[in-house]
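[job 0412] stage=fold_complex status=start
inputs:
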Amino acid sequence: MTSAMTRTTLIEAVQQAGTAQELLAAAQALAAAAAPDMEAEAIGCLVELLGYNNPGAAVAAVDGLIAIGPAAVSPLLEGLDEHNYGARAWAVRALAGIGDVRGLELLESALGNDIGPSVRRAAARGLGQLRCEALPPGEQEGIRQRALAALERSLADGEWVVRYAVAVALEGLGVSLAGSPLHGRIRTALDQLADPTVEDTCVVCQRAQLALQRLTASAPTP
Amino acid sequence: MAPSDADASIPLTGAGEPISEAEALRRLRQSEDLSLQYYAAWWLGRMRSSHPEAVPLLCTALRQRQPEDPSIGVGTNAVARNAARALGKLGRPEAIPDLLAALEDEDDGLREAAARALGQLRAEEAVEPLCARLASGPQGAGAPRENSPKLREPCEALIEALGDIGSPRPAVVEVIVPFHDHERPIIRAAAARALLQLTGERRWGESLLELLLHPQLQVRRAALMDLGAVGWRPALEPIRGTLAENSLKLIALRGLVEQGQGEPGAEAVLAVMDELL
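[job 0412] stage=fold_complex status=done
writing structure:
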């Protein structure tokens, strides 16, 4: 358990870091102290770290924000910087990892419209792992239907890595929708990515085939 | 390989609107507007055009020379360089003679583009001229030029081309080995990559793993691209752990799945890719 006092020291270390190496070490220390009850100031500091163009520090900050979970969602949504692609990609990745449904709209629009492939790929991944078990069944179905529709619209994304992420997300959605009538649509979408006459990137086909195999293996026997 | 190489032929600003194949061929055929030609050459490569006129027109463009002219937004021999890059992507061996001629040009930027294209085409005929350019070693071909960050020869491209062509003759290996001690880590990475491709010896792969720990991000990025190009699967965990953008790690891991074999298996590589999305 890290005390509030220690966290203040950790924030100061981030703010005072003079070199990339120092920033990395400070970010890692702060992220390691992250927990669901973390103070707003420390969460804000982690959100800021996403924009420093230091990949190691950003990786650590994303891990920290995911460990904080739902309490980090509002600061992340409010801290989005329209002009910093790198920071936005990290923020979408953090929101995808947290899996909070408040991020749904951002993930939908990022997957459909963002010009950065790394942002679209993180958004696709997030749409496959939204946590909505706590919601009433009717709302769950509605959210998963929206996520599926967004993924279907991106089956022909121009970047292979985004289509790869769509395959991974479809598998995730398929697992959470076992037994649902939406399952047929998920298989149709995966069939398209698994077909080498339609999908020209070998690794995407391989990943979609793996997803289909896993969904078949886990399907309830009729 | 420096990751920026992949973007070396991005279109000029303002010329990037979608065009048809017929329009690209028309633009390449004219020679009044060099920026249109430049874009057309890039377009034909990017779209992997299989039109029968594409290769002959690109070869004609490859023989074109022009001085730098900032007023029209094109640098020295920009059209020829882009034509060479496109010919590398189209995979047609008819282009080899013209690319071999470009490899002897006095413009080192053009030699670099031609070397890369010959590597992509796996042109056996290029092995001797490539070795000849490198034969003077790190102190000759690999020596820095005065008043320029460049080396006397575009060593990185020449060495990588030899690795891609994959002719593992002892004479080729002997030419490359001394560059593995070059003072610049990017050149050491290119040499390790080519030697790993040619010999399959583990020590060259391990040398790339060391470069994944290099303090400079640019060097770690280059080592990632090199490991991906070879598809060396023992690099899976070190690639996962290196400090670099996930985008580049994913490109490298795609190479491990598609080019690689053996252990760890493809499914283990895919699992790491899923994690990095």
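[job 0412] summary: The radius of gyration of chain B is 19 Å.
[job 0412] exit 0
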